[in-house]
Specification:
Layout (H helix, E strand, L loop, with lengths): L2 H8 L25 H8 L21 H15 L6 E2 L2 E2 L5 H12 L16 H19 L33 H19 L9 E2 L6 E2 L1 H20 L7
Antiparallel strand pairs: 1-2, 3-4
Length: about 240
């Protein structure tokens, strides 16, 4: 009997084997997912996937750990007819994965909202709201994935649907569809920026001379644009989504 055989015989671990014959380090029962890069992360192979044993996802909150876990669970259930997937107290192989995901999201990821309003916040409530609205509008414009319908009468003529090239299909959006929403968002952002800038209309008054000079027409046009931007905010309030 060789030394290797003696070591195997005297081992207290029942799965002891030489490396080339080990079921832990040779061919494994892979469960591929639909996302190749996830397969690489799980097994180091594009055609690999979830391997037998314990798999853990670790990371900060809101970094898709649940989504990855549900993807793996779905792949497992798709491969085996007798597969069973447990989530907390829920056990039902036949429950669609989307329902499980929704249940898990509602149970564990309820949005926590805490709002504090101090008395001075309403002394100039328009200014206070502007401080919140401006950065939110800017972020929305930078990250949005679509555009709501914007009426032609709310934008300059060159951005209207009637000024766009002819559509290939009746159901297509015209070439100016997203441009109209970008223009509206810019007007809203500009308008609310003026509400939080206490010097926004100073340049209409020339106090270097006596009596001072007041550019009334330009000031009225400035105020009209502010009012229009705020009215657009109200009109398209329900279009403020990403």
């Amino acid at each position: 009997m060789s030394i290797l055989d003696k070591i195997k015989k005297n081992s207290t671990i029942k799965d002891t084997a030489i490396l080339s014959e080990s079921k832990f380090f040779t061919t494994k029962d892979m469960i591929p997912t639909q996302i190749p890069i996830i397969n690489v992360a799980l097994s180091g192979r594009l055609d690999g996937g979830l391997t037998p044993g314990l798999t853990m996802w670790a990371g900060p909150s809101k970094h898709f750990k649940t989504a990855f876990s549900l993807l793996m669970a779905k792949s497992y259930m798709d491969k085996y007819d007798d597969a069973v997937f447990t989530l907390g107290e829920r056990l039902d192989k036949h429950t669609p994965i989307t329902r499980i995901s929704q249940w898990f999201f509602n149970k564990n990821n309820k949005k926590k909202v805490e709002i504090r309003i101090d008395p001075y916040d309403t002394w100039s409530m328009d200014h206070t709201l502007g401080l919140i609205i401006v950065p939110m509008l800017k972020q929305l414009k930078a990250t949005k994935h679509g555009s709501p319908f914007v009426a032609d009468e709310d934008v300059p003529e060159e951005l209207r649907s009637t000024s766009a090239p002819e559509k290939e299909n009746e159901w297509d959006t015209d070439a100016n569809h997203h441009k109209r929403w970008d223009w509206v968002m810019d007007e809203m952002i500009w308008a609310f920026e003026q509400t939080i800038d206490e010097t926004n209309d100073d340049h209409f008054f020339d106090r270097s001379v006596t009596p001072y000079v007041y550019d009334k027409d330009a000031h009225h046009a400035h105020m009209f644009r502010i009012d229009n931007g705020i009215q657009l905010f109200g009109k398209y309030y329900q279009g403020l989504w990403d």
